[in-house]
Specification:
By secondary structure, the protein is an alpha+beta fold. It is about 35% helix and about 20% strand. The protein contains 14 helices and 20 strands. Strands 3, 4, 5, 8, 9, 10, 17, 18 and 19 form a nine-stranded mixed beta sheet that branches. A four-stranded antiparallel beta sheet has the order 13-15-11-16. Strand 3 and strand 4 form a beta hairpin. Helix 12 crosses helix 14. The radius of gyration is 25 Å and the shape is globular. The structure holds ligand BES and zinc ion (ZN). The site of ligand BES has 17 residues, from strand 16.
Length: about 500
């Protein structure tokens, strides 16, 4: 019998007993396989954790040009691992930026092909002094693993690698897979977008899966059906050619730091709502059904505030905090500098100032159009004697994935099997810009099945991954691959 002939794809039989009382599950080959897979995963938990620790040691910060070799080493480490564990066509592709890693396993002709995406790059680790243990020396505390990248996204990417390795080893994988791991997600995937165009054949698939989002809360798995888009710009404000004595020159000579503050303040109204003309024009409002569904989620606003140690929240008028977080566009200053920031006081009128600004967008806002609106708004308000330079950084389109899609339904059942709890649907304030390109360029819809937690401190000091979620995530990935043929005929 060839591999493809094996009766792996038959669906489970649920035979009712003749009197109609109770049910008797007939074990099919499929179920026997899954028992073996789960047993193997359980027995390998220590190894999986050790291997994750190794992966987390690479300081693969994509934004830091001095770490180029570390990104390469991290990708190479993953390449070796995939090569040694039964994946085929394991290729490390050089790009203008950091390498893209692809691999495949295509032992089930006729079965669906899943594109599995993850990113091995991480956010910068600063501010370093706020970490309780060094960001690239993983530490186990309180049932969690602490390290930069533990949840975003190495720990989550690894859930698929570990599930697939076990299924391949047991010849229990009923679908075909193409793995696509990149090293530039955190800087807007500049190399991956052209890569998709150039490698459509290699990436040909029926659906995609990404684990790079959160569960709604500990113990409550979720599927994310909406991601925000992003528009990122940088402002350079210059005034006099040199720093000046603030007494001798202050007043008539407009201070660039003051000017930057004026410009930034003009972006908001008194409620914090974005005051840029046209900003909300393309926004698709929440449906009454969505609002109802959000309201039914066990969102504990007091606990949310307590976790962040903030005394209050300022949701957009007319919306709840959750609605604002997930479905309303926002605009944030990500950083600004200018003038004297050393110890003590210096009476200086600085010659320049800088700010980085990003907007999170929702359907159907267009990032380029939003950048145009922002730039026009700011240019109209530049004070006399001041020059403004606007640099456009990366963009990402917002996404909504169809909840009735087969891949989402398979994900729902997989999560329930793995965590023993019925999952919920949620949206998300974060962005994974490549999801839109998957649809646009490759024509595939994506399941966003995440295992991070809101308290996982993603992008922040003390980023962590709950071990229960790491192991549960591996089980959920295995269940997903196992169940998918039942949903995608
Ligand atoms: N994994 C995150 C997205 C995310 C964050 C999902 C929090 C769920 C909860 C992703 O890696 C990320 O951070 N993306 C960037 C994209 C940007 C740099 C283009 C983001 O959202 O800031
Ligand atoms: Zn991520």
């Amino acid at each position: 019998m060839t591999q493809a002939d094996k009766p792996l794809l038959c669906s489970g039989l649920d035979m009712r007993t003749p009197d109609g009382s109770g049910s008797q599950q007939i074990e099919t080959h499929q179920e026997i396989n899954m028992d073996l897979v789960l047993a193997r995963l359980l027995s390998q938990q220590d190894d999986h954790l050790d291997e994750l620790i190794e992966l987390l040691r690479f300081p693969s910060v994509s934004a830091d040009s001095t770490r180029k070799a570390d990104l390469h080493a991290c990708a190479e480490h993953l390449r070796q691992e995939l090569k040694l564990s039964g994946f085929k066509d394991v290729i490390l592709h050089r790009t203008a930026g950091h390498p893209v890693l692809t691999a495949s396993w295509k032992g089930r002709p006729g079965a669906p092909t899943v594109l599995v995406y993850g990113h091995y790059d991480v956010q910068p680790e600063d501010p370093l002094d706020l970490w309780e243990s060094p960001p690239f020396e993983p530490e186990l505390r309180d049932g969690r693993i602490y390290a930069r990248g533990s949840m975003d996204d190495k720990g989550q990417l690894y859930t698929h690698v570990k599930a697939l390795q076990a299924m391949i080893a047991l010849d229990a994988l009923p679908v075909n897979v193409v793995l696509l791991f990149e090293g530039e997600e955190e800087i807007g995937s500049p190399s991956l977008r052209p890569f998709l165009q150039e490698h459509k054949e290699l990436l040909n698939s029926d659906c995609a899966v990404i684990s790079d989002t959160n569960m709604f809360m500990k113990g409550l798995p979720s599927i994310t059906y909406g991601l925000k888009g992003l528009c990122y710009i940088e402002l350079d404000v210059t005034g006099p050619a040199m720093d000046l004595h603030s007494g001798s020159y202050g007043g008539p000579v407009v201070n660039p730091v003051n000017a930057l503050c004026e410009l930034l303040a003009s972006l908001y109204d008194e409620n914090g709502k974005v005051a840029v003309k046209g900003f909300y024009d393309a926004v698709v409002d929440l449906t009454p059904q969505e609002r109802e569904a959000f309201a039914a989620l066990p969102f504990d606003e007091a606990a949310f505030r307590a976790d962040l140690k903030v005394a209050g929240l300022r949701p957009e008028p007319g919306y709840t905090a959750l609605e604002h977080l997930w479905a309303r566009p926002t605009c944030d200053v990500n950083g600004m500098h200018g003038g004297f920031i050393g110890e003590g006081a210096k009476t200086v009128l600085p010659s320049r100032a800088n700010a980085k600004l990003s907007c999170r967008l929702v359907p159907d806002q267009d990032p380029e159009k939003i950048a145009d609106l922002l730039e026009a708004h700011l240019r109209e308000r530049v004070p006399v004697g001041i020059e403004l330079k606007v640099t456009r950084h990366h963009n990402g389109r917002p996404v909504i994935v169809p909840m009735d899609h087969a891949v989402i339904q398979a994900g729902m059942e997989a999560l329930e099997k793995a965590f023993g709890v019925k999952p919920v649907y949620q949206r998300e304030g974060g962005s994974i810009p490549i999801v839109d390109d998957f649809k646009d360029v490759l024509g595939v819809d994506t399941l966003l099945m995440g295992f991070g937690l809101p308290e996982g401190r993603c992008h922040s000091p003390n980023e962590n991954m709950e071990l229960e979620n790491f192991f549960g995530g591996i089980r959920a990935a295995a269940w997903f691959y196992h169940l998918l043929p039942n949903y995608m005929k």
